[in-house]
Task: inverse folding
């Protein structure tokens, strides 16, 4: 067995530790969106594959037998490429998918079907928005320049930010409720905007918003191909051993 682990999430790092502990031959792949990715206990590659054709070539060259897609739930491009490439090579693929967040009592959440719908869900009157969506889709919010945006990024942006009124905080999660509550109070936040990524590492902002009585706007996840999904490390490890025993 030789596993390609498509990572970049807290769950992927946990799975990498489990694979290393079990002595399973595996390679961890980062997309390369952060300057200093978290070190892993597995051989690691950084960067894209060059689309489906490039990924197919990599799978062949590295004699990969199993693929685990533990990318971010909104990394639809990579997930789609992995699905097509594995189908072409007849390789088993499992998507390690953390459950989406669900509202609790006291939450004031609005869901929109796509990231592109987030700006329109903000009010027209000036607001102070904690924009917790990463850096890829910031330009969408140029359509709402009346708001002041608080951004929290892992790395300093290489290009000028597309938003006029912006406060930038550099930090790497996981975050806690006390810290996120203090952050929102310091910046007088009135709205929280995020992707429904799920998981524990980034949930603190939602719990802090509930405690402060703030509305949250969440983008639903994109639809991903395939039906085989696991929700925790144990399920992925069971899937790997099961498919290896079956000779899949």
Result:
């Amino acid at each position: 067995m030789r596993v390609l682990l498509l990572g970049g999430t807290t769950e992927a790092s946990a799975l990498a530790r489990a694979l290393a502990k079990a002595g399973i031959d595996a390679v961890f792949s980062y997309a390369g969106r952060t300057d200093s990715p978290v070190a892993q206990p597995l051989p690691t590659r950084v960067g894209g594959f060059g689309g489906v054709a490039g990924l197919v070539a990599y799978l062949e060259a590295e004699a990969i037998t199993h693929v685990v897609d533990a990318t971010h739930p909104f990394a639809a491009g990579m997930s789609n490429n992995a699905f097509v490439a594995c189908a072409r090579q007849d390789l088993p693929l499992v998507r390690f998918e953390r459950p989406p967040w669900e509202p609790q009592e006291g939450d004031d959440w609005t869901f929109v079907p796509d990231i592109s719908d987030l700006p329109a869900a903000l009010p027209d009157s000036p607001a102070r928005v904690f924009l917790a969506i990463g850096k890829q889709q910031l330009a969408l919010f140029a359509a709402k320049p009346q708001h002041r945006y608080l951004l929290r990024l892992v790395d300093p942006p290489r290009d000028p930010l597309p938003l006029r009124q912006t406060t930038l905080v550099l930090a790497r999660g996981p975050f806690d409720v006390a810290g996120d509550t203090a952050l929102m109070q310091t910046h007088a936040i009135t709205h929280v905007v995020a992707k429904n990524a799920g998981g524990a590492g980034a949930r603190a902002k939602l719990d802090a918003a509930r405690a402060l009585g703030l509305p949250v706007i969440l983008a639903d996840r994109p639809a991903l191909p395939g039906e085989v999904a696991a929700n925790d490390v144990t399920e992925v490890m069971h899937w790997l051993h099961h498919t290896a025993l079956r000779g899949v």
Observations:
- Residues 124 and 161 are 21 Å apart (CA to CA).
